[in-house]
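Support request, please re-run this one:
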Amino acid sequence: MQNPKSPQAFGGLTTKAYEQAELFARRLTARARHLRRWPTKRGITCFRLYDRDVPEIPLVVDRYQDCLHLAEYERPHDRSPAEHADWLDLMAKTAAETLEVPKAKVFMKRRERQRGMSQYERFSEQGQTFVVHEGGLQFRVNLSDYLDTGLFLDHRITRSVVRDAAAGKRFLNLFGYTGSFTVYAAAGGATATTTVDLSNTYLQWAEENLQLNSLAGREHRFVRDDALNFLKHHSSGAAYDLAVVDPPTFSNSKMTDDIWDVQHDHAELLVRLIALMSPGGVIYFSTNSRRFKLDEAALAGVNVREISRQTVPE
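Re-run finished. Output below.
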């Protein structure tokens, strides 16, 4: 006979799970009400609704126009694998019903601790791609096939800042991913852009995003390379006026023998990049590592400003 307090081998939902679903629904309702005018008043159709607001519900919920993208972050719990699968289904159903989104347009991912390049690997062939709009620009997103969608919503304000600063500038995008920063820089009047990434898939995606916005041209260069290796072999002299560096926390891609660790490697990368910047050049550096500590000693003499509060969307 099964102990009622032990994990259920064949799944099932507990009273606690339903209580969490109610709490989740209330939080989503409040956030949706707060952001309800964004699509019409601000033209923002892709935004974050929930970001692990309740510790026992470690999910991130992003709205991409009429679709929802849910990501689960690893956190200890007392559910069996079967119970946890049912719990995730309940949370997805709760989000869909609360926000009035068809279940077929709700996508759930599990975000584990970064191991190698797993956050960039393709794990599905559903091909649920479509074009979304942000800041008067267009971007192709894929909600089904990769852990990330192709457009990081937490960078929306920073992208706008880059566009405002780009006129007449030579722009460099390291760890360029799908090129959203490059699109914004080009739209802002950058005279030239260089986008560096190890993945041909993402470089092609970045080119497509430029084409979507009628911004493609020879002045936009795409380089398949490791960011640090790109800088090590770059010709000397001031080559850039504006740069964005948005590295992963950790990476050991099969495409390079080097292991990237943002805490260990950021100082060398920034020092090498600074040597390529024009006088008065600006670098926007971003990391999602919560334990990250900038090596200020290595950057002595450089004007460093923390702008997270001004650039993280509400």
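The longest strand covers residues 277-285. Residues 1-9, 114-119 have pLDDT under 50 and may be disordered.
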